[in-house]
Sequence to fold (314 residues):
Amino acid sequence: MLRKTKKVISLLCALIFILPTLSYSMDKEEFLKFLIESSYPESSTKDDNSKEEKDKEDKTANKEEDYIKVHIGEENIPTLNSNSNNKENISVASSEYKNDIRITKENPTMLIYHSHSGETYSDSPEGNYHSQNNRDKSVLEVGTLLTEQLSKKGWGIVHSTKYHDYPDFTKSYISSLETVKSMLNNHKSINIAIDLHRDGRDLKTDADIQKEHERMSTTYKGEKVAKFFFVVGMKNPNVDEVKALAEDITKFAQSKYPELVLPIVKRQYGKFNQYMAQNHMLIEIGSNGTSSDEAKASVKYVAEILDEYFKQNR
Fold:
């Protein structure tokens, strides 16, 4: 009996020392798995432009001043957070996300995704406003809220929370293109796609932050809210349709909430994958000069605009 007791004690002691090591190894393995999965697309790109053209497009897409000036220079490229544990950090319906996807209804008609999934707001400045740690203060959380709001209005939504800007930020649009193609292939009913971002400026001082906050926020009905706008990539083969849609929705938004919507921004250098869906939009809600709460406060207005516009123009 004494011998068996000693064996049990020895086994328990061994487990006490082994389990932390095993746990640590599992964390590393999961991290490596993330890097591998983030580096490979979900579907083929043979029917699109050549890889060289897409690489060129994606690399030049970050050279325009102001729009994403925050990324210019090696010191401003976001770094991968190796201690990230982001799987359970989405506060809106997190249990409904499986493999970074939520589908709210059969035969969904709308896709929401994020080419720059790591974009965060002024209340999460780490990594030059890019992080995987603070999902609740990022465009991903704004996307989950927009998904929830539109779902309550009867829309079937596919929301992807996959990180397309990690581990290689320069290939964000190449990565998100694979997600769009995969979602459209799996859900033929989708005819509306939204690439949801926040605007980005080079904020070096408190004065810069204050100036940007004033530009991209306002007080509406006693609440601080972020402004929003649409971006058009002028290199799209269907640029006339993309531009017409952005202008039409902006006009509709201005008729309802002129204080909240800014004029569309046209980018001569890019496509932003806007040729992929029948109705494809790039929406910027707030910026790195506004807080995540201000961006979330805008979502109910953006959802109302999208809901009413597309129900009227089906």
